[in-house]
Here is the input.
Amino acid sequence: MTTISKSTKTVVAFAGVSAILGALLLTLPMAPSASDALAQSKSSKAQKAKPAALPQISDDVDDPAVWGKLYPLQYELYLKTKEMQPTKYGGSIPTPHTPTAADPRTITSQSKSDADAGLRTMWAGYAFAADFREERGHAYMLEDQKYTKRQVVVQQPGACMNCHASTYLANKKMGDGDIIKGFEKINAMPYSEAVKLVNHPVACIDCHDAKTMALRVTRPAFIEGIRAYKASQGIKDYDVNKQATYEEKRAYVCGQCHVEYYFKGAEKRLVFPWSKGLKIEQITAYYDEIGFRDWTHKDTGAPALKAQHPEFEMWSQGLHARAGVTCADCHMPKVQYKGANVSDHWVRSPLLNLKNACLDCHKKHDAKITEKELKDRVEQIQDRHWKLREDAMSALVGLIGDLKSAKDAGKSDADLKTARYLQRRAQFYLDFVEAENSTGFHAPQEAARILGESLNYARQGQIALRDASFKPSVAIVDIPPPPAPAAAPATR
Ligand code: HEC
Ligand code: HEC
Ligand code: HEC
Ligand code: HEC
Ligand code: HEC
Here is the structure.
């Protein structure tokens, strides 16, 4: 296939200035200070006559409203992440909630755990069985985390906060200027204490350098995770902010949060399990090697794992990644907004924004292609994916039922070991694509392959319960019993 050329690159520092220019030309209701800022960055004469009302953006200001004085268009679009609208499988549905003292929200998104009995069976004994909802826009990340029932059923650690708030300044302050030290301190705090250190959902400062507006990675767990991954590829001491290309950064800023993770040890360090690679086999091998389990399945005693939103890992296995198309190309495409050409900071489902997110690029290759055709192609991938997901889910629920019966009938741990390990695997594989929020789109064939493996593990587990001599297709790994409660790793 001929390569479709990507949206024109803009030198980031320039882009900031042009955004302001666009805004000025339109005489938007803007703070006069923004024009001062423009003058300041453009001419040295203007710099001498330093204006009094210049917005103070610096590496110590995290309030997006202050940054918004200089970059009003990006700020306005960023605020739109409050809006909720469903697509066939994504987006979100505004769901009324009666406010209580414990949870003052009046609107949440729809529950997924209530709607799907299979999920509750799969997560029996774990916090996710209590509350799991469709994710929604960035504006909600902090409140949705504060008020989920998963905070009520277990005491969560400060490490949770890494991906649900603007944490750059908190890390910097707690670490006396060293974000890694601050990260370590905050991870280990109880969530209820840590949350007092932050004020905003993800903000400009988390993705941008205040001086140049260049993209940057501020999350310690990503800095460490990508270093471990690059080392597995033979690249030593990788420094993401120095070595990543412009294109890579357009995915890495999102990979700071949209990834699989766990909390390591009693210090609850947030770790991305990538030191063997980003594929599910490599991540499973990582967890097996360290003998990690998230919890012990209530009905079967299996050493279970919970997968979390591995969009970055899944995207990396797809054709778009191969062609250099990044998260920002589809979720933050260039748009005409109030007469200016800006990156759409209204991060959302591309299906709500097909023209900018898909059509503009695909049209370069196929002049006749339409929005409808692209939407149909997405939904066709998703429908096929969902059918296979349902089949994998019934196989897993079948295995869990059989294992529970065998356990209740008095079978020994030794008898159940093979089937329990196969449950761990079938479940993690299914959950990996379930938690990946594109319903297969980011890497359709990889998602189908993983679901096929999941189904195979679940059915092999059922055979193993019936035939003690059965040899499964994977080696059975011993997962040690969980540490005593005091030293137990945090849940997630
Ligand atoms: C080629 C375009 C494309 C690229 C590149 C891409 N995505 Fe997506 N993404 C989609 C589509 C299409 C969906 C499905 C949306 C839906 O079902 O409404 C989606 C869904 C999502 C969702 C769920 C959205 C919702 O409304 O439920 C998240 C989160 C997400 N992507 C994050 C990412 C991240 C992070 C990256 C990069 C690591 C990425 N995407 C790369 C096209 C893309
Ligand atoms: C999750 C990461 C993220 C956050 C948060 C974020 N941005 Fe951006 N921003 C991007 C990306 C990605 C681009 C595209 C950069 C590129 O490729 O040139 C961008 C581009 C920009 C640009 C360059 C002009 C343009 O529109 O392409 C400006 C200015 C900007 N952002 C301002 C802001 C402001 C102001 C905020 C806070 C209200 C903010 N950004 C929050 C990721 C982010
Ligand atoms: C600081 C962590 C963080 C970063 C950085 C981040 N996200 Fe998110 N994102 C979240 C969280 C948390 C949610 C869910 C919020 C909720 O449900 O309350 C979310 C939700 C989303 C959604 C769902 C929106 C909807 O309306 O359903 C999409 C799409 C998305 N993010 C894409 C991206 C892309 C693309 C990037 C990079 C440009 C990015 N995110 C960067 C944490 C992050
Ligand atoms: C910046 C350019 C660009 C953008 C944006 C983009 N694509 Fe693509 N897309 C490509 C390229 C290039 C390929 C072909 C990759 C190859 O064959 O190597 C491709 C392939 C595809 C394919 C076939 C491969 C597969 O994974 O099934 C589909 C379907 C597709 N794109 C849909 C979309 C949709 C829907 C969107 C918006 C959410 C989108 N694309 C956004 C460039 C883009
Ligand atoms: C590595 C980053 C990361 C960490 C750490 C993290 N989250 Fe999230 N969280 C996300 C992203 C990304 C989303 C949106 C995608 C999704 O829901 O799958 C999200 C969504 C959510 C949601 C909304 C959807 C739902 O599941 O109901 C809640 C609530 C939530 N997280 C709570 C927590 C809690 C509690 C912790 C600590 C145990 C935590 N998060 C730790 C990245 C993270």
Remarks:
- The radius of gyration is 24 Å.
